[in-house]
């Protein structure tokens, strides 16, 4: 399971993000404990960021991480989740990969009947 940096605030995190953390842990396998959740509801983010409503996390590799194939990690993790999740590859100013931004963004209201299983 990815570790959290000491300053990460999880108060207000949507429970759906726990599924994303489990999914990325499964994708990373033995390397999961070398990755760190660096932001949930804390930090500075762009206006309208889902971090501010507890629906996004940032996760990146620590110095001992063996897996840094971000695109493959993203794709394999998304295959474990529903289409309500997005994973964005975030970059540093020099265009090198920085971290994965994982967000939960449902496309329809909770009580919507569209797509519900028949009774």
Give a description of the structure:
The structure is a single chain. The protein has helices at residues 16-28, 70-78, and strands spanning 3-4, 35-39, 56-61, 85-91, 97-104. With 119 residues, the protein is α+β, with helices and mostly antiparallel strands. It has one domain: Muramoyl-pentapeptide Carboxypeptidase, domain 2 (2-Layer Sandwich). Strands 1-2-3-5-4 form a five-stranded mixed β-sheet. α1 links the parallel β1 and β2. The longest helix is centred in the N-terminal third of the chain and has 13 residues, at 16-28. 24% of the residues are buried. The mean pLDDT is 88.
Distance between the termini: 37 Å
How are helices and strands ordered from N to C?
Answer: EHEEHEE
Q: Helix proportion of residues, in percent?
A: 10-25%
Q: What's the number of helices?
A: 2
Number of domains: 1
> Would you identify the CATH architecture?
2-Layer Sandwich
In total, the number of strands is 5
Shape: globular
The strands making up the biggest β-sheet line up spatially as 1-2-3-5-4
